[in-house]
Design goal:
mainly beta, two-stranded antiparallel sheet
């Protein structure tokens, strides 16, 4: 059954990141290890699954410069901390991230937005079944 996306929350290092308008886990990949040899059948390459790269957590939101989440990100750049994504049905994804810097977008006659990208380090766990 589909889940609505409204109501997702994210904490980084235990600090809520407020004003979110978009939350994405992107760039997940598995290394393909080529094990083809002269005895491989069918004139075809053969592969084993290698290490999993769990990609990045990407956040976009309304910028509030004094918000605790933005202040936390600025103060902890480059640190590896816990991240929790909680979905509208209360399921979660838990993982570690490297804190990336928030950046801002300042278009003419529009709101100021921030974005931040966090490299995921290690496995993704929790009660949600897919990322």
């Amino acid at each position: 059954m589909a889940k609505k996306s409204f109501g997702i929350t994210v904490t980084i290092g235990g600090t809520a990141i407020g004003g979110l308008t978009d939350v994405n886990i992107t760039g997940r990949d598995v290394t393909a290890i080529d094990v083809t040899n002269h005895g491989s059948t069918g004139n075809a390459r053969e592969f084993l699954g290698g290490l999993v790269d769990n990609g990045t957590l990407e956040l976009t939101g309304n910028f509030e410069g004094t918000h605790a989440g933005i202040t936390y990100l600025e103060a902890h750049l480059g640190e590896v901390v816990d991240a929790v994504v909680t979905y509208s049905d209360a399921s979660t994804h838990l993982f570690k991230v490297i804190v990336g810097p928030p950046t801002t977008s300042n278009p003419l006659d529009d709101k100021i937005e921030f974005s931040a990208s966090f490299k995921i380090s290690g496995p993704i766990t929790g009660t949600a079944t897919t990322a």
